[in-house]
Structure formats: C-alpha cells, structure tokens
From TrEMBL:
One of its GO terms (molecular function) is phosphatase activity. SUPFAM superfamilies: HAD-like. It comes from the Bacteria. It comes from Alteromonas profundi. Coiled coil: none annotated. The keyword Kinase does not apply. GO terms for cellular component: cytosol. Signal peptide: none annotated. Keywords: Hydrolase. This is HAD-IIB family hydrolase. The keyword Hydrolase applies.
C-alpha cells in the first residue's frame, strides 16, 4: 500500500498559500484511484483545516510538526510531546530578552487557544489583526496561561537576524527544537516555531505507517521540519524551491511548488 504525506507551505500549496486548480484535480484523481494520501504540516489544525477540508483528506492528519494528529473519521485528536512549564518559561524568557512577543499555542477541548504578551512590533500586531483575529482561535493574555496547559508549540515573528540568533540558542538546548523560515510579511522578517525535541513529522509518519499497514511511504517537503520524515520514507521528493539540505535527502528534486511540481510529479508517477 502506497501512503503519501504532503507538507503544505512551499510544497503542496502555491505562492498564494492555496491549493491550485491543477493540484485540486490531481488530488481528486488520487482519490478516485484509491491512492492513500494525507498531510504532514507544521501548521496548526486550525490554519490547515480550511485549506484541505474539501479535498478528501480522509486519513489522519499530522499537524504541529507531529505534535497533533487528527483522525477525521472518528473525530479524535491525539497529542504527543507537549511542552512542559519549564520549557515554556525558557522560550518566553528568550523571547523577552530579544524583545519578541511569543505566541503560545494550546489545545483545550479541541479549541485552539493562543496566549501572548503585549505586542512589541507592528509585524506582530499585523499577525493578530490580519490572521489570528480572522480564525476561530481564541486569544488570551499570556498572564492567564495556566500551569500544565496542553502546549503544542510557541511561535514568533520578527526581524530575520533576531530570529536567527534566537533559533541558534533554542536549538542548542537538549529538550527543544526550533524551525524557522522567511515570513510572507516581507524579506526582512522570519517566523519561528518551537517544539519539544521529541516532536517530529517522522515519528508521526512512522506511527501512521504502522496503524494503516502501509508498505511504501512517499513524502513531499521543502524545509528542515521535513527531514525526519524524509529519513524514513521509501521515496521522498523536494520541490525546486526546497532548502539545499532537503534536496540532498530527497530521492529526486521535482518542479517548483508554484508550478504545481507535486501534482505534475504524481500524475506521471501514478499515470493519472
């Protein structure tokens, strides 16, 4: 049984962060051929669900870089490798030292709650006004974050140089892993997500492989957080826009994500 895992941003989605008409049709063809596929993304369930809701993603979804797995068939959410209070405090202290607002993401009774302190930069205020406020996420002051909350990740946005310095420090710690990349808000900005180091797409993919009895794992991804699933995949493909390290791990490099690279490859690979 083939089982395909799609990263979203920079991979299945185009430059406008949507699934193109050509890729939509390709997903429909996969579904008609009973070729199994699902998503493995760093996005939260809330931000990703609207993008994939109408495209027959019936198998369990991997969110938050493997922390959250949602089974749409039985409507069950599984959480693993959450951040503990001490780890959260380390990240918050680091953010405060660099003058960056941390956005602490939690899940409670299937509700996505985001706790944050006072914003310190316009790009952070824009994130709230233009993105968070238009979703179903519930926003709360950081001071109201309860001990023992189910914290999936902590996200931040800021000037690229500052985020890079924070990324370097946080990745030096044994219990944390940080992923970062260019922000859509402009070339001077970067985003960063911080997770528990045991959280990975690879672990979640391995669990689903066993659960579903898959024999051939095919992964598509473009960034550092895809490395763990590339390392265990039977086949792994990176779009031309992927980071050099991911291209090195890939079985092959396919067309750019904004040229429907994944969809075009799949049509040839499975004679769709």
């Amino acid at each position: 049984m083939d089982l395909i895992f799609f990263d979203l941003d920079g991979t299945l989605l185009n430059k406008d962060s949507v699934i193109s008409a050509y890729t939509k049709e390709t997903l429909k063809l996969l579904h008609q051929r009973n070729i199994a596929y699902t998503v493995a993304t760093g996005r939260t369930m809330l931000s990703a669900h609207k993008l994939i809701a109408e495209h027959n993603f019936a198998l369990p979804h991997i969110y938050n870089n493997g922390v959250a797995v949602w089974d749409p068939t039985v409507k069950a959410l599984t959480l693993e490798s959450l951040l503990n209070d001490n780890e959260v405090n380390i990240v918050i202290d680091c953010a405060n030292e660099y003058g960056i607002t941390p956005f602490v993401n939690t899940v409670s009774d299937h509700a996505h709650c985001i706790f944050h302190g006072p914003t310190q930069h316009q790009v952070e205020r824009d994130l709230i006004d233009k993105y968070f406020s238009k979703t179903d996420a519930l926003l709360f002051p950081l001071t109201s974050l309860a001990s023992g909350a189910k914290i999936t990740n902590i996200s931040m946005i800021g000037e690229a140089k500052t985020i890079r310095e924070m990324w370097r420090y946080l990745n030096s710690l044994d219990s944390l892993v940080a992923y970062s990349g260019p922000a859509v808000e402009g070339q001077n900005f970067s985003w960063m997500d911080v997770h528990h180091r045991l959280a990975s797409k690879g672990n979640a993919v391995q669990n689903l492989k066993r659960k579903l009895g898959a024999t051939n794992i095919i992964c598509f991804g473009d960034s550092d957080n895809d490395a763990s699933m590339f390392e265990l995949a039977d086949e792994c493909y990176a779009p031309d826009n992927a980071k050099p390290a991911i291209k090195t791990l890939a079985s092959d490099v396919i067309e750019h994500h904004d040229k429907d690279g994944v969809a075009r490859f799949l049509r040839e690979r499975f004679s769709l």
